[in-house]
Description:
This protein has helices spanning 3-10, 48-51, 60-70, 84-96, 110-127, 147-152, 156-159, 180-191, 216-228, 281-285, 306-319, 322-342, 373-384, 406-422, and strands at residues 27-31, 34-37, 42-45, 101-107, 134-138, 169-172, 196-201, 205-206, 212-213, 232-236, 260-263, 275-280, 348-354, 357-362, 387-388, 395-398.
Amino acid sequence: xxLSEKDSLYNWHPYTQHKTSTPHPVIxxxxxxxxxxxxxxxxxxxxxxxxxxPFGHSNAFIADAIYKQLNTLEHVxxxxxxxxKAIELSExxxxxxxxxxxxxxxxxxxxxxxEVAIKAAxxxxxxxxxxxxxxxxxxxxxxxxxxxxxxxSGISFFTEAFKGSLLEVVRIPVPTAxxxxxxxxxxxxLVNTNNFAAFIFEPLVLGAAGMVMxxxxxxNKLIAISKQKQVFTIADEVxxxxxxxxxxxxxxxxxxxxxxxxxxxxxxxxxxPMAITSFTQEVFDGFYSDDVNKALFHGHTFTANxxxxxxxxxxxxxxxxxxxxxxxxRINHKHSLFANHIKQHKRVANTRVLGVIFALDIKVQNAxxxxxxxxxxxxxFFIEHGIILRPVGNTIYILxxxxxxxxxxxxxxxxxxxxxxxxx
Length: 424
């Protein structure tokens, strides 16, 4: 029995309808921006394996940090104990975040980072005996798959089966160009009711919605409106964090700063699951009490795993190197040149670039669903040609590792243009 056959026999993959899906490539090795399957077919990983791997596969520097930590302390419970790597990582992350962030809470992944933020916002007002039980979010947002994160998400087919079991979230339009005043009006109406604990958003780029982008100026206004009515603001930087937008965090483009920030994905350089939710002192003080019942009763077995902390520290140190910052600028320049070229194509509706993120929308007669037929044809075409890209509906995006070469990027660009010419 082949590995692929064993996989089909044993494994249930995420976001997969197994009755209609084709066998998955079995990846056995990775190095830098490349992956190889069991048949030694080579793939360019043009999405950094779901946005987690900015420094390349099998990164020796991060691997060495993990190895050293495994030989010192692989794990210790964080309930009732602490350790040097968690303290060091918290100090480092707080140095990178806006200076209003004062406390770090660890969890396991992007969904749980968001879950922690939502629970903290709701319980903050519960502790004050103030009834604020609702959340504000953008339409078409995606914040994760756990119940609080799922409730805040707006992509309906992800949440349809559970809509009767979710907390109440009211969605406002994404403030794309020309839509800003509509969004402002909607938010002002909601915050004035004093029923809402928090406003959660993906800053500047909605990833799973198809890399939908909007300006920092309008987000500044939305945060200011929320603060006027003490509605906490939650920046979900799970996708955008650690250099994706050209700055360390997307919120670095803002003058207004959120009350909470959610981080994961690239935090450990794609090596070990780990997440962070950061808080202002005000939020933390809402739980600081002689009453034990006002504590934040949330935790995970692998909270602040020392090995994950060591990987994160190594990952951040790589991000801060001149070489990596030059790579980010290089990719941004390459993307911009390609955008200027491909936007002339008869099938391209529009293009957009921010940092290392490139996206184009294909002109279609009718709106394509997330996993529509065009998307599936494009995905199969890219895999056949040795490129890992995961289109969203009629949107093709690139979000590569920062160490991808110019030649590899050119291959990705040429393959996208070929797909536009050949895939209907």
